[in-house]
Task: inverse folding
């Protein structure tokens, strides 16, 4: 059982790394305040489509990573 969980943890880890690298850099949006891009300062920008899916999948896989890690720690 432990070997199966370790394999699943490895797969989840690799997918999680890839998804984090695929996500857009949200910190660069904050730099627009300094450079004068204030048209988006008070606007609400919602994630849509694939960006929303990647964000939710990242959160789900992150939770799976924590849960599987705790299970392996307790075994």
Result:
């Amino acid at each position: 059982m432990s070997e199966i969980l370790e394999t699943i943890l490895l797969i989840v880890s690799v997918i999680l790394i890839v998804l984090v690298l695929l996500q857009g850099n949200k910190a660069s949006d904050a730099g627009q305040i300094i450079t004068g891009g204030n048209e988006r300062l008070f606007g609400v920008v919602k994630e849509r489509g694939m960006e929303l899916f990647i964000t939710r999948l990242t959160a789900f896989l992150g939770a799976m990573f924590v849960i599987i890690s705790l299970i392996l720690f307790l075994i």
